[in-house]
Amino acid sequence: MKGHCLSRRRAGLWKALTAVLCVVFLMLAFAGCSDDGESSSGGQGKIDGLGEKTTGTWVVEMYVCGTDLESENGAASDDLAELTKKTPPEGVTFVIQTGGAKKWQNKDVKRKEIDRFVYDKDGLRKVEHKKDADMAATDTFADFLHYANDNYAADHRILIVWDHGGGTVFGACYDERTGNMMKLNQMQDALASTYDKNTEKPPFDIVGFDCCLMATYGVANTFEGYGRYLVASQELEPGNGWYYTGIVNGFNK
Length: 253
Known about the structure:
The chain has 8 helices and 9 strands. The chain has helices at residues 12-26, 67-73, 75-83, 138-151, 167-170, 184-192, 217-223, 244-251; strands spanning 58-65, 92-99, 113-120, 123-131, 156-162, 172-175, 180-182, 204-210, 227-231.
């Protein structure tokens, strides 16, 4: 799986390129896969809550499968540290699940269990730990979606999948302990177990993959009706992944 992603290293140039990729793919609406070929936002170029100023309450669900990116390079730990450099405003909550790595390079995440964290205006805190499970399994992903939906109500939701990516063929979320990778049909089954598919009002405003190779028609088609916008990379992702301090800052505009 090392070939799917570059080793994660910190570099200002790569952060700039990542920002450009995010802007480009944010403009790709899921409704582009619909039969009438029109945007589900009515062709207005923006959707409720994603205009010049974010409005309402937001939940950002982060499914962080650490794999060798974490066990060898501490990349997931680095991104969690980036996330917590800025405090989100009132009404913005990050719900995070970690797993899928042989070891974690921070003191808060345990390697032989599934951990769940919340990050909001009151800081980062662990809210639950569960028995270890395969992060590439449909049931594990579905259980996280259920948990976030049942416990954290919001006007708007964002889903971020963090790990290696293999596009339409291989999917994403490679668990280095089990050697399994979650296929697109598994992701779709997990979503369907939690939400009704709705192209007019999907449950997620944005579905994002902090992974390589996930900006494909197959991925967009899989999440049509579950997310309005897709944020992903068509190529190998820059080594550092996304810049999470900037994501939190975006809610403070």
